[in-house]
Amino acid sequence: MANKTKKSDKVIREMLEELAQGKSLRAVLSPQNKDPERPCWETFRTWMKKDIELRKDYETAKADSMEFVMSEASELLVNSLAESRLQEKTDLGKTHLIKSFVDMSKWKAERIQPKYYAKKDSLSLLGDDSSPLVIKWDK
After folding, report:
1. Rounded to whole angstroms, what are the CA distances from 92 to 7, 17, 48, 79, 88?
2. Are strands 122-126 and 134-138 parallel, antiparallel or unpaired?
3. Which of 41, 43, 32, 33 is nearest to 7 (CA)?
4. Do residues 38 and 28 touch, judged by C-beta distance below 8 A?
5. What are the CA-CA distances from residue 84 to residues 76, 79, 88, 96 (Å)?
6. What is d(CA 26, CA 45) in angstroms, rounded to the nearest whole number?
7. Is this prediction's pTM over 0.70?
8. % of the chain with per-residue pLDDT over 70
9. Which of 27, 40, 109, 122 could hold 117 in an S-S bridge, CB 3.0 to 4.6 Å?
10. Domains of the chain
């Protein structure tokens, strides 16, 4: 059941800023955040259903977070490569974790910011009922 948190512009701005900095939605909501002024998931979802502007701000914050997350993945790769060059052996477990982190970052970016990060191969079908079907690959 949704908690009775009152909607506060200050709290919403703080939450959206944290989301734009790459934090997960679960991390910014109550009870994980342990802030009684923060809404629970059900309350926040209800607010977004009723407030189109809040929904747009949320989507913008999530899109902005992709730059942050992708730069974090890039930084992790650069630091790990520099560290591995100094060592005789590379830890295979750490290598797999880094690969998983980068893969997850790419997956999220492709879905949240497809305009910038999605794979560009697509199939377009052009034509109408009276003309022949034209298939064109976009690149």
Report:
1. 47, 35, 43, 16, 13
2. antiparallel
3. 43
4. yes
5. 12, 9, 8, 14
6. 12
7. no
8. 87
9. 109
10. 9-117 (1.10.10.60)
Give dist(CA 4, CA 89) in Å, integer. 54
Residue 34 has pLDDT above 50, yes or no: yes
Contact assessment for residue 112 and residue 124, using Cβ atoms and an 8 Å cutoff: no
Q: What is the predicted pLDDT for the residue at 126?
A: 61
Q: How many residues can be counted in the chain?
A: 139
Backbone angles phi, psi at 137, to 5 degrees: -85, 125
Closest by CA to 14, choosing from 45, 42, 35, is: 35
Which residues touch 91 (CB under 8 Å, ≥6 apart)?
A: none
67 HSE (CA, 13 A, CB side):
7
The structure tokens listed for 104 are: 């997850």
Residue matched to tokens 């109408």: 128
Question: What sign does the dihedral 97-75-77-84 (CA atoms) show?
Answer: negative
